[in-house]
Specification:
four-stranded antiparallel β-sheet; 60s Ribosomal Protein L30, Chain: A; about 5% helix; 2 domains; about 190 residues
Length: about 190
Amino acid sequence: MKPLPNGAARTGRREQPERHREGGGRSSTIIPEDTTYQERKSMQYSEGQVGRVFTVRIDDGEDFIREIRRFVTAMNISSGMIHFLGATRSAKIVTGPKELTVPPSPRGEEIFGGWELLGFATIYPGEEGPSIHIHTAAGKGIRSLAGCLREKAEVYIVVEAIITEFVGVSAKRTLDEKTGVDLPVFDRILP
């Protein structure tokens, strides 16, 4: 448990979060730093603006996941989103849980031989630098899969990506003990 600021003592009851009025008269609640994910019962969010926008080309034979992470780190992007399209020679995709349990046991699929990709990812600060959560739809012929792209995705010919940076967003991705999943945590809740 984190210590309270200014040497304050824990009383056994949680202090009420501070209420905050947004520019348009909307009301929100600022979440105390030491609140765990399980204690938050409402929708979380953060507000910011669009910063820099990058167009990126990742070439044949390169590992899309490694290269996109390398680019995000090199450009010092802490929060943002990635849109991408292209093809992969081989990749690993988590296509959901094996069974509907918490924590989940992931069901993985491997694809080989030139699958088309169309995907989206979010970027938030993680424990070890930028944490990128990538989802994709992959198709070859009349077969298709959708899920979380993991470990490695070897590019076939090219993957084109548009990376949009967010500025002013207060977010981080941390391991949630209950679900066993790295989840984004934002600074406000909508009551």
